[in-house]
Amino acid sequence: MSNQRLSQSFPPTSQANFQYISESHELIQFGQCSDKITYRSIQSKKDLKQVKKLHQEWFPIQYQEKFYESALNGSNPSIVAEIEVQVFNRKEKIIIAALIYQIRYTKYKYMKWREIFCEFWKNLTAIYIMTIGVMNEFRGKGIAEKMIDQLKSQFLINPQLKYIYLDMVIYNEIGMKFYQKNGFQIVRTKRQHYNIESNVYDAYVYLWRAN
After folding, report:
1. pLDDT more than 90, % of the chain
2. How do residues 10-67 score in pLDDT, each as one tens digit?
3. Could you read off the pLDDT of 142-178 as tens digits, one per residue?
4. Are 2 and 112 in contact (CB under 8 A)?
5. How far apart are CA 36 and CA 9, in angstroms?
6. What CA–CA distance (Å, rounded) separates 8 from 192?
7. Would you say residue 194 has pLDDT above 60?
């Protein structure tokens, strides 16, 4: 057991994030991992089972069953990164990263004046990142960046999309560096937005624009 929390999404004083939950860590430890990473959507209940356990490691917030059902039926789209692991004489496919998002209508407060006055009659939309995480064993390999790039690529084929945004708790310094590196900027601070482990925390709203 580590003396440091496994995920920066948990509060610095948290005592609830020192032990892995997903069985995938043992498969990675004792098996041989393929170098090939496949990106796809959540497609089965088996996928959901893996993602749920990873979410318990990654996030201090418990998501309701309808959240996962929406990811499976596609109403909340998803991107997962998957590898194949050979353990003894069998091969297992495991999810090592996951991103779940929503398509929402744009908010005036996050739009440029030119967009408001010239395109107010259009049904403009934005991508809201609900959750994103990568297993610790695979961090620093550009996996999260590739999932974000897949979101950004949607702007090339859908002119109605205007920005990507998300809420992030203010103590997550690693998360801040990641989003700033990928072109996101803080556009707002939400006061007392999160209630985590009986404490209240502010959140930053990070936003990326295509132009």
Report:
1. 86
2. 999 999 999 999 999 999 999 999 999 999 999 999 999 999 999 999 999 999 999 9
3. 999 999 999 999 999 998 999 999 999 999 999 999 9
4. no
5. 28
6. 18
7. yes
Residue 61 corresponds to which amino acid?
Answer: I
CB 149, CB 39: distance < 8 Å: no
> With contact defined as beta carbons under 8 Å apart, do 57 and 21 qualify?
yes
Q: Specify the DSSP class assigned to residue 64.
A: P
189's tokens: 């601070």
Rounded average pLDDT over 90-111 = 91
Residue 109 structure tokens: 């407060």
Q: For residue 185, which phi and psi values (nearest 5 degrees)?
A: -130, 150
Rg (CA), the chain: 18
Kindly state the DSSP code that residue 44 receives in the 8-state scheme.
S
For the record, the structure tokens of 81 come out as 């990164």
- Give the orientation angle of helix 65-73 with respect to helix 45-58, to 10 degrees: 130
Alpha helices in the chain (DSSP H): 24-30, 45-58, 65-73, 113-119, 143-153, 173-181
The C-alpha atoms of residue 14 and residue 7 are separated, in whole angstroms, by 10
Q: Which residue has the tokens 């739009």?
A: 111
Can you tell me the distance from the alpha carbon of 57 to that of 19, in angstroms, rounded to the nearest whole number?
8
* pLDDT tens figures, 114-124: 655 456 546 78
d(C-alpha 147, C-alpha 79), whole Å: 7
- Single out the residue of 24, 41, 23, 42 nearest to residue 33, CA to CA: 24
